[in-house]
Structure formats: C-alpha cells, structure tokens
Amino acid sequence: MSKKTDNMSEEELNARHTEKMKKKKAARDKIIATKTIEKGLTIVHTGKGKGKSTAAFGMVFRALGNGMKVAVVQFVKGKWGTGERNVLDKFPDQVSLATMGEGFTWETQDRQRDIDAARAAWEQAKAFILDDKHDMVLCDELNIVLRYDYLPIEEVLEVLEQKPEMKHVIITGRNAKDELIEFADLVTDMTQVKHPFRSGVKAQVGIEF
C-alpha cells in the first residue's frame, strides 16, 4: 500500500475502492456507447507461443454455446487425433469438420504433395467462407501453408473480401503474412516465454492435443 492508504481503515479503503470503480465503469460505459458497428471479423492468431489453435477452438466452443454453426478446416494436423475433434464430433448439427492436412511439411518431405493437400483444404475452406450456412469458419494452420507459398496470399485475401458480412473467419499459425495482418480486424501474436518442450517434456494429452 502507499503511504496515503496506510492509515486508512478497511471501511475507508472499501469506500475509496467503490468510488474508483464507479468512475472506471462510467468511463468504460462511455467508450462502449461509441462502438456501434456490428460485423463479422477476420481474426488472426500467430506468433511463436503456444495457444494459437487452442484460443481459436475456444472461440469455436463459445460460438457453439451461442447456437451458431461453425466450420473447421485443419490444414496441417489431419493425421493427429485431437481432443477438440472428439468434442466437435458431438455437435454434428452445428459443426462441419474437414481435416485435410497430411501432417507437418517436414514429415511429408514432399513439396508437391503438400501443395496439393493445401489446395484441397483451401477449396473446402473457401466453400465454407462463402456459403450462407456457417456463422464462423476456423482455418487452422492456414498461416503455415501461406508461409511456404503453397497458396497465393492474394487469393486468400480476395475470398475474405467476399465473405458474408456477418461471418467470422479465424486463421491460425506462425508467421502470418504481413498482408493478412494488415487486412484482419483482430490479430493476436502469441509470445513464448517458457515451454516444457525445451526441457525435454514431450507433448501432453489434454495440453497439446
């Protein structure tokens, strides 16, 4: 505590806190009142830190809880069994799930195969983005295939420009293209501070997948 509050009673501290929070709420309400635009967002999760897909699936589950219809296209993790996929399978009326990837590019070691898989996944994602059925589309790890130039960024931006006005599109993966960052409405860069993998800990069930 500061010297100013050291000699204050609990009652005085509580009263001061209440007054401070009243002022903060009034300022916050004033700011919120100016936000009147409602639109579908293009959202990008990038950066070296863990949590890009995890946060995106959190949005997916939130959307499902609000009765929205969601499409998920996994560009890279198609070979992985994931807890998210097991949960999504329980919502067949709300979820369209396409696991198109064939694994990380360093696992396939076949550039043309990766390009073909990326193209197939993008064609499915494009159909979801442009349809009038889904409220949200998650393009998981799309940034990875864009990083390796398996898809032209110009084509992706052109499709995002054409999406229905109220549709949300989430794109995850490291090394998001500058053009995509500039285009997006919401961009989060996950910063890695510490990761158990560096200490020899392998991927854990319920944490990584």
UniProtKB/TrEMBL annotation:
<dbReference type="InterPro" id="IPR027417">
    <property type="entry name" value="P-loop_NTPase"/>
</dbReference>
<dbReference type="Pfam" id="PF12557">
    <property type="entry name" value="Co_AT_N"/>
</dbReference>
<keyword id="KW-0963">Cytoplasm</keyword>
<keyword id="KW-0067">ATP-binding</keyword>
<dbReference type="InterPro" id="IPR025826">
    <property type="entry name" value="Co_AT_N_dom"/>
</dbReference>
<comment type="function">
    <text>Required for both de novo synthesis of the corrin ring for the assimilation of exogenous corrinoids. Participates in the adenosylation of a variety of incomplete and complete corrinoids.</text>
</comment>
<comment type="similarity">
    <text>Belongs to the Cob(I)alamin adenosyltransferase family.</text>
</comment>
<feature type="domain" description="Cob(I)alamin adenosyltransferase N-terminal">
    <location>
        <begin position="8"/>
        <end position="32"/>
    </location>
</feature>
<feature type="region of interest" description="Disordered">
    <location>
        <begin position="1"/>
        <end position="27"/>
    </location>
</feature>
<protein>
    <recommendedName>
        <fullName>Corrinoid adenosyltransferase</fullName>
        <ecNumber>2.5.1.17</ecNumber>
    </recommendedName>
</protein>
<keyword id="KW-0169">Cobalamin biosynthesis</keyword>
<keyword id="KW-0547">Nucleotide-binding</keyword>
<feature type="compositionally biased region" description="Basic and acidic residues">
    <location>
        <begin position="1"/>
        <end position="18"/>
    </location>
</feature>
<keyword id="KW-0808">Transferase</keyword>
<dbReference type="Pfam" id="PF02572">
    <property type="entry name" value="CobA_CobO_BtuR"/>
</dbReference>
<dbReference type="InterPro" id="IPR003724">
    <property type="entry name" value="CblAdoTrfase_CobA"/>
</dbReference>
<comment type="pathway">
    <text>Cofactor biosynthesis; adenosylcobalamin biosynthesis; adenosylcobalamin from cob(II)yrinate a,c-diamide: step 2/7.</text>
</comment>
<keyword id="KW-0627">Porphyrin biosynthesis</keyword>
